[in-house]
Design a protein that fits this description.
The protein is of the alpha+beta class. The protein folds into three domains: about 10-60 and about 320-395 and about 410-485 and about 520-635, no CATH class; about 100-305, no CATH class; about 650-715, no CATH class. Strand 3 (about 65-70) and strand 4 (about 75-80) form a beta hairpin. Helix 9 packs across helix 10 and helix 11 crosses helix 17. The longest helix has about 40 residues, at about 290-330. Residues about 205-215 and about 235-245 have low confidence and may be disordered.
Length: about 725
């Protein structure tokens, strides 16, 4: 026998809709209600559309986006996650949620900064990162692009027409112009440019707090030796003008941008055309009229519209962005130099309730039968992620007169129900899929809340999942991760601008003129991280970088993350959030050994301070005879042993079963018994595996003892 012929034990299915415009699992399965399984071509097609091996591949395949259009009736912009029907395509703007999106980029920066600092939520300066979505910070990225374009264009212009190097610069310029042109047709995307453009022209020193109230002095706009803007006072009678220096390269570049804008844009607008040129080529020769009163009015209107649009965008986009962050965190847990058994994610891209509807359920079953009930394990799905389950806490609050503005409870959209979860589990458990689930991401399910309120509400809400055939395959992950606490989610945009004849233009300092909005908290569902860390720990290379004794052959199915210091060596990539749980809370958790629980406690491993969240418990909803929840590795290892047994014995042939468990040095059991001391040994010291054959009933009883606790498994014998 060979040591191992199952090469992946970490394919994970995400039960979520990401982009309804893309293919989904049901559509790809097709009409398979009377079929036992799908053909190989169908499975290949499912993988082509829905299987991803990295976060970047996920973004490429699913292209998550938000759609927007303008409503002339109320002069507002409307956002939606589904492409609106009945509206012409040219009136719909697609906003991609990827690494280039300002809001998403800000959240990624926040996560990375917290990881680098290791600060708890209470110590972290969220406002410094949240500022990244203000117009002031958005324009900084533009300035960098501008600098690069100016440099490349100058290099390009110096060379002969057919010089190969010139052509290379041409390729680079094409890419940069493509980046710059993304928002030509998106007025909303141009607003930050317009806002900062007006400030630059009216308040040259607006970044200097002491100079905000200075009366404007008209001057010449120059570019310094290092590409920085500088203004030299310019005196001109009768009218206020801004004169800028003539440079041949800049003039040509400006013309290129103007032509590019006019060719790409459906309905070119002179104001936007000038704005594009001023944004990317600040050296164009010419005279720019400044009507201060009108510009101030424009600025305040732009700022107010931008604030409203950002608020509405975040309200619609946040649930999608939280899903995308969840996927990123799933892949981020696989933090390894040598990549071997890489976790893969199969995304259903359809609402979970659709999969378990009558008629659809049979189709989904045909797929599971195909990938999980054959001796070809390349496409087997081992784990599942079922996020955002309705916590359904019934509050009995006394009605009181509202004398002051109070909290308005907003229900989270798109929550999954416990009914859908149990219906799904009754099916997927037949195919040995272990599913991580979590309750909706809110303050109620955060580290902070768990540390103060305990686990009682989780235990109460999940009682329905105990004592079922699927109990050992379902794992409650908690608490959820807080990326931005709701009370620290304020985004400051800027003050409104004022114009007075005597003093000129200045930014207001009045509190009521400060434009600010609240994101209301951003959370990552715990099930993504739980599945990510367990999928990562299946890889021998991942374990080798963290432990001394690791077999390069076996997956981590028997790896017990709760044992010894394992949790400190296999820690998550998530930054600590709180100072830890009280002993009372931990005693309560330990009394049941409940859930897949993350810990933010202070700890040290040798001399290393643990700055990341670790796994405290890793349990299923199945209880043993003593009322203690069972470790999830027991079910995972048992599934692995059963699949190896099935494949090695040609679907449980009696003589081959006997040889499998025999004392022959080449038998599977003997091979496992020779290697007991690896962290990923299939049988470890204190474990045992035996079998009893009931010939009369054609049944083989497997007895798998994990550290003395016996788990029984029954298989039907295939008679020779």
């Amino acid at each position: 026998m060979i040591k191992n012929f199952i090469y992946q034990t970490n394919r994970t299915m995400l039960f979520e809709e990401i982009n309804p415009e893309k293919m989904d699992l049901l559509t790809l399965i097709g009409d398979a209600r009377e079929m036992d399984s799908l053909d190989d071509e169908r499975v290949l097609e499912v993988n082509q559309h829905l299987l991803v091996k990295s976060f970047n591949e996920f973004l490429q395949k699913f292209e998550p986006k938000v759609y927007s259009y303008f409503n002339a009736a109320n002069q507002k912009v409307k956002y939606t996650l589904k492409k609106p029907e009945g509206i012409p395509d040219e009136l719909i703007t697609e906003i991609k949620i990827d690494n280039g999106n300002t809001f998403f980029k800000m959240l990624n920066t926040l996560i990375e900064t917290r990881n680098s600092q290791g600060n708890k939520n209470v110590d972290f300066k969220f406002e410094n990162i949240l500022e990244l979505i203000s117009p002031k910070k958005v324009i900084e990225d533009i300035k960098q692009t501008r600098k690069e374009i100016t440099y490349l264009y100058a290099k390009h212009s110096e060379l002969d027409e057919e010089n190969p190097k010139r052509l290379e610069y041409g390729d680079k310029l094409n890419n940069k112009f493509e980046e710059a042109s993304v928002n030509y047709n998106n007025i909303l995307g141009m607003l930050p440019l317009a806002i900062e453009d007006i400030k630059t022209r009216l308040l040259f020193s607006h970044e200097d707090e002491k100079s905000k109230s200075e009366k404007i002095r008209i001057g010449m706009l120059h570019v310094g030796d290092k590409g920085e803007l500088e203004v030299i006072e310019y005196k001109q009678s009768n009218k206020k003008e801004l004169i800028v220096r003539d440079e041949n390269v800049s003039k040509q570049l400006a013309q290129s941008f103007r032509e590019d804008y006019e060719q790409i844009t459906d309905e070119p607008n002179k104001y936007i055309s000038d704005l594009v040129v001023r944004t990317f080529v600040p050296l164009e020769k010419g005279v720019v009229e400044i009507d201060e009163l009108k510009e101030v009015e424009n600025y305040n209107n732009y700022l107010q519209f931008y604030k409203s649009a950002q608020e509405d965008f975040i309200k619609v986009a946040k649930p999608l962005i939280e899903k995308i962050l969840g996927v990123k965190m799933f892949f981020d847990q696989y933090n390894v130099k040598v990549r071997n058994m890489e976790p893969t994610l199969l995304i259903s891209n359809i609402k979970p309730e659709m999969l378990v509807k009558a008629g659809n359920k049979e189709r989904f079953q045909a797929f599971l039968n195909t990938v999980n009930s054959k001796n070809d394990f390349d496409n087997s799905v081992w784990f599942g992620i079922f996020p955002n389950v309705d916590l359904d806490i019934k509050r009995t609050e006394r009605k009181v007169r509202e004398r002051f503005k109070g909290t308005k409870t907003e229900e989270k959209d798109g929550k999954n129900t416990m009914e859908t979860l149990t219906n799904l589990m009754s099916l997927v458990s037949q195919y040995k899929m272990q599913v991580f689930f979590n309750f909706e991401g809110t303050y109620e399910t955060s580290f902070d809340n768990l540390a103060t309120m305990g686990i009682d509400k989780y235990v109460e809400r999940t009682k329905i999942l105990e004592g079922n055939s699927y109990s050992e395959y379902i794992i409650p992950a908690l608490p959820n991760f807080t990326i931005i606490p709701k009370d620290k989610s304020g985004v400051i945009l800027d003050y409104k601008m004022k114009y007075e004849e005597e003093t000129g233009v200045k930014l207001s300092q009045e509190k009521e003129d400060l434009l600010k909005f609240w994101i209301e908290g951003v959370y990552i569902d715990a099930s993504y991280v739980a599945a990510g860390i367990m999928a990562a720990s299946q890889c021998p290379s991942f374990l080798k970088e963290r432990f001394k004794r690791v077999s390069g052959v076996y997956p981590g199915v028997r790896f017990d993350i709760e044992a010894e210091d394992n949790a400190y060596k296999v820690k998550t990539t998530m930054s600590k959030e709180i100072s830890g749980f009280t002993n009372t809370i931990k005693d309560k958790i330990n009394s049941f050994n409940y859930g897949f629980i993350f810990s933010s406690d202070s700890a040290h491993l040798k001399k290393e301070k643990i700055k990341n969240v670790t796994v405290y418990k890793a349990r299923t909803m199945s209880k043993n005879a003593d009322g203690i929840y069972e470790p999830m590795y027991k079910t995972l290892a048992t599934t692995y042993i059963e699949r190896v047994l099935r494949a090695a014995t040609m679907d449980f042939k009696e003589d081959k079963i006997n040889y499998f468990f025999s004392n022959d040095p080449e038998s599977q059991k003997s091979m496992w018994n020779k290697e007991l001391n690896f962290v990923n040994s299939i049988i470890q010291a204190g474990d045992d595996i035996s079998h009893v054959i009931d010939k009369e009933n054609n049944i083989c009883q497997l007895n798998i003892a994990f550290s003395g606790n016996v788990k029984n498994l029954q298989v039907d014998i295939n008679k020779n």
